Amino acid sequence: MSRYDFRTPRLFVAPVLEQGASVPLDKGQSNYLTNVLRLEPGDSVLVFNGQDGEWRAELQREGKKTVALAVVEQTRPQHGACDLHYLFAPLKHARLDYMVQKAVELGVSQLQPVTTRHTQAARVNVERMRANAIEAAEQCGILTIAGVGDAIPLGKAIDGLNGRILIFCDEDADTRDPVAALSHIGRGAPLAVLIGPEGGFADEERAVLLKHPDVVRLALGPRILRADTAAVAALTLVQTVAGDWG
Q1: Residue 25: CB atoms within 10 Å
Q2: What is the Cα 199 distance to its own chain's centre?
Q3: Which of 101, 112, 120, 168 is the most buried (most CB within 10 A)?
Q4: Burial class of residue 13 (count of CB atoms within 10 Å of its CB; 0-12, 13-18, 19+)
Q5: CA distances in angstroms from 194 to 72, 215, 227, listed in the order given
Q6: Quick one: pLDDT at residue 2?
Q7: CA distances in angstroms from 244 to 6, 92, 139, 186, 198, listed in the order given
Q8: Can you tell me the distance from the alpha carbon of 167 to that of 220, in angstroms, rounded to the nearest whole number?
C-alpha cells in the first residue's frame, strides 16, 4: 500500500486500534459508509485515533442496520505532531470553518480562539471547530487531531505560552522580508502563530504582545489580507522556514 492512500475511505475513531480489534461505528459513520459510499462487507476502510497510527480495517455487518470495522493491519505508525499552536480571533461560521480546516491541513497541533478588542464573532462553537478539525484530518491523511480550546482573552492566551515563541502577524510591522524575520528560529522549536481580527489589534494589545520575551513581529506582504487568508499565508511561511517542511 502506498504511503498515502487517498482512494480508500478514512475515518477517525475513538477506540484503541490493534490487529483483530472490532471498532463499532456511530450512526453517522455507518450511514456514510453504507448509504453514501455504498460499501459492502469486506470492503476496506482506513481508521486512525490520533494515538495508534493508521490501520486498514474491513467493513463487517453486525445486524440489519448496524456495521462495525474489523481491524486487519497497520498501514502507518503514529508520529509526533508538529508543535505549532494557532491563536486567532474568531470569525463567523463559514470563514471560521475554512480557517480551521486549512490550519489543520498545514500542521497545527492546537487551535486556540482568543477574544480581542475588535473581535467580530461574539461566540465560538467549539464542537463545530472540532468536527472541522477531524474532517480535515480524515481527508488529508493526517494522523493526529488538533486540540481545540475554548475562547479566552488575548492576555490570558499570551500568559499561557510558557516559553513558546510567539509569531505575531501585524499589518503595522516594518518587516519587509518575512522569511528573514523567521530565519533565526530553529526547526522543531515550540511555536505559536497569532492572527488578529480584521479590525486589527488595539494599541494596548499590540503593546502587550511586543513585551513578550520571545516574539517575532511579522508582516504578510504589501496587501491587507482577510483573516482566513492571512492564516494560510502565515502558517505556510512558518512551516517552510521553521516548521516540519524542511
Answers
A1: 21
A2: 24
A3: 168
A4: buried
A5: 42, 10, 11
A6: 46
A7: 21, 30, 20, 11, 28
A8: 12
Identify the CA nearest to 60 among candidates 31, 29, 39, 36: 39
Q: What is the pTM of this model?
A: 0.90
The predicted structure's pLDDT at residue 205: 92
3-state secondary structure of 165: strand
Residue 20 and residue 71 in contact, taking contact as beta carbons nearer than 8 Å: yes
For residue range 206-241, list pLDDT tens digits in order: 999 988 889 999 888 888 888 899 999 999 999 999
Residues of the chain with pLDDT under 50: 1-2
Give the pLDDT of residue 209. Answer: 92
91 contacts 132 by C-beta, under 8 angstroms: no
- Look at residue 37 in the predicted model and tell me its pLDDT: 95
Question: What are 103's three cell numbers?
Answer: 490550519
CA pseudo-torsion sign 147, 152, 154, 155: negative
Provide the residue count of the chain: 246
pLDDT at 1: 40
DSSP assignment of 48-78 equals E-SSS-EEEEEEEE-SSS-EEEEEEEEEE--
DSSP class of residue 173 equals -
In terms of Cα–Cα distance, which of 129, 135, 194 is closest to 164? 194
